[in-house]
Amino acid sequence: MKQLDLPPDRPIRDRVVVLENALFLPNRRRKATWRYWGGVQSADGSEHPYATGWHYPRDRANVIPEDYPLPEEIPTLEGDFLYLGHYPSGFGHFLLEGTARLWHLRQNGKAHSAALMLKPRKLAPEGVERQIRSFAEFCGLEVPPMIWPDGPVRLTKLTVPQQGCGALELMLGAPEYRDMIVGRFASDVPARGAKKIYISRSALDSTHGSLIEEDKLEALLKDEGFAIYHPQEHSFRDQIAQYKAAEVIVGLDGSAFHALALVGWSSDKTVAIIQRRPAAEAALQARQLEAFGVARVGVVAGHETAWSPAGTRRAALSMFGTLSFAETGRALYELGAISRPDVWTDTPRAELEERVRAIGAWLERDMYEVRNSATPLDDRPARLHSDHITLIPETTRRPG
């Protein structure tokens, strides 16, 4: 299976397999990476396609190495077990992937002896289990007791539902996954918070992937009566309460919108996703919100370029976005999010470049303007000149 096809209108309730004498192989990779070395094998040693985990449609989450170490005697666990896939440590990917097989619990209320999943080796199982259970409870579901074998185990009976959600095109989810969320998720959590919020990234630990002039954007939205909201400073339950309460929500594309999708159906909302980089995520997140029942969603593409430091393997790994405030103001006004677009004016190019140069000085790298998040910069020297930071505009770059 080379990719996961998950059309949002195709049911997957029948995409469940029950494996007898399946082999569960916990993750053996010590370094925290996107790829896990482990998974599920059928009794004959093959990997059933439903057991494969996916980050993106063509990017597997787990691989079982041919030299995976097996003990001479593998213990056998008696019972009816449930496979819940993989647990990504990033919050946004957890919402999309770590919850992607829970839909089976709503489709089939049959009790299982226990549940298993792959996780990063560095993460304590207690914290992982607590987060899984909390999400399931918001859906009105009960997760079976979870077990975390530290080595291979043979399971007399293992139920494996297909993954029902994921990142990029997979984030729209299968019908059964959306049914688990829409009209149900956190239905007992009362709405509480500001009516207009801007979901900010300005207080995140890492500035990589940020908007260069987010401070200016925040100031303009404050003048429009928006509260500046930093979701990482609040519990998940409080985030849900705020997203329920907000009638107008503006933010840069990011994982917060995956959380908003969980409760966007709860009331009429206007949502504006500002594209912070030249990439597909903003448009896909808008489609996700629409699929999960948000009333009005718009994508604001305020600029076509961003800046990335020399030496980066792929621009998206360290990208600093720019914004045309004039275009953004007009778009937000047309969406009904703001009332005074005339005060939204662009920063002079020279002033913006000084801010880019300051980022380059902090990173000790020259900065390249890019139009594509996949642009490779690893063949570029860190500095063309030792005494100053060079900015290389996209229009002046040589091919290759």
What report would you give on this structure?
- This protein is α/β, with parallel strands linked by helices.
- It folds into 2 domains: 16-181, no CATH class; 196-396, no CATH class.
- It is 24% helix and 20% strand.
- The chain is built from 10 helices and 18 strands.
- Strands 3-1-9-7-8 form a 5-stranded mixed β-sheet, with no helix packed on it.
- The radius of gyration is 23 Å and the shape is globular.
- This is Glycosyltransferase 61 catalytic domain-containing protein.
- Residues 91-261 form the Glycosyltransferase 61 catalytic domain.
Rg, alpha carbons: 23 Å
The count of helical stretches stands at 10
**How would a textbook summarize the main sheet?**
5 strands, mixed
* Number of domains as seen in the coordinates: 2
Residue runs with pLDDT of under 50 for 5 or more positions? none
Alpha-beta content class: alpha/beta
